[in-house]
Design brief:
Helices cover about 85% and strands about 0% of the residues. Helix 1 packs antiparallel against helix 2 and helix 1 runs antiparallel to helix 3. By secondary structure, it is an all-alpha fold. The two termini are about 25 Å apart. The mean pLDDT is about 90.
């Protein structure tokens, strides 16, 4: 992976995780005090999209890497 794509990957992960933290800081107090089950479920699912985006970014990074790095990642995931 070249320097530019690694930097771009890291920036995207940092932005996505920052959005995740902001959502958690806003939603957590609201979810704890909410009595409506549907709204509480919506609050609980609010941080999921940034996490799915990070998982997708990780998968794209593994798919674009060379064979040795892919194998190393797969062994690590298997363990």
């Amino acid at each position: 992976m070249t320097r530019n794509t690694k930097l771009g990957y890291e920036v995207r992960v940092i932005v996505a995780m920052s959005i995740y933290v902001i959502i958690m800081m806003i939603v957590w107090p609201l979810a704890r005090g909410e009595a409506n089950l549907w709204l509480k479920s919506l609050y609980a699912l609010a941080p999921v999209p940034p996490m799915l985006y990070v998982v997708w970014l990780m998968a794209q990074r593994i798919l674009r890497s060379d064979e040795l790095e892919q194998r190393t990642h797969m062994i690590g995931l298997g363990v």
